[in-house]
Design a protein that fits this description.
This protein is mainly beta. It is built from no helices and eleven strands. Strands 2, 4, 5, 6, 9, 10 and 11 form a seven-stranded mixed sheet that branches. Strand 7 and strand 8 form a beta hairpin. The chain is globular and about 40 Å long. The N and C termini lie far apart (about 40 Å). The relative contact order is 0.32.
Length: about 120
């Protein structure tokens, strides 16, 4: 089992930046991937960014390409999401997640953090 703990959410004005971090503990991540999902009120949870743990291949949703950057530190077992040029529509609860299968397939994620609120004011 993998335990995931997010940090870094908060309130920011449109155009601002936030950095989310997620620390993973538990089993080794060999062959696994990590992702960031978000869920806004009344909307489905969506995969916004993901990274394969060892190869560092990345995936971004079209809505965040060019604004968000996902990275990982294999020594510290952390994954981060740098969010720039934030928009009010980025407001959501952001969840860190881990998969032992394919990192860019939103259906493959098995372990979840508790979520952190990101609010972007206009």
């Amino acid at each position: 089992q993998v335990r995931l703990v997010e940090s870094g959410g908060g309130l920011v004005q449109a155009g601002g930046s936030l950095r989310l971090s997620c620390e993973a503990s538990g089993r080794s991540f060999r062959g696994s991937g990590m992702g960031w999902f978000r869920q806004a009120p009344g909307k489905d949870r969506e995969l916004v960014a993901a990274i394969s743990w060892y190869e560092a291949n990345v995936y971004y949703a079209n809505s965040v390409k060019g604004r968000f950057t996902i990275s990982r530190d294999t020594a510290k077992n952390t994954v981060s999401l740098q969010m720039n040029s934030l928009k009010p529509e980025d407001t959501a609860v952001y969840y860190c997640a881990a998969t032992s299968r394919y990192y860019s397939d939103y259906r493959s994620y098995e372990n979840w953090g508790q979520g952190t609120q990101v609010t972007v004011s206009s």
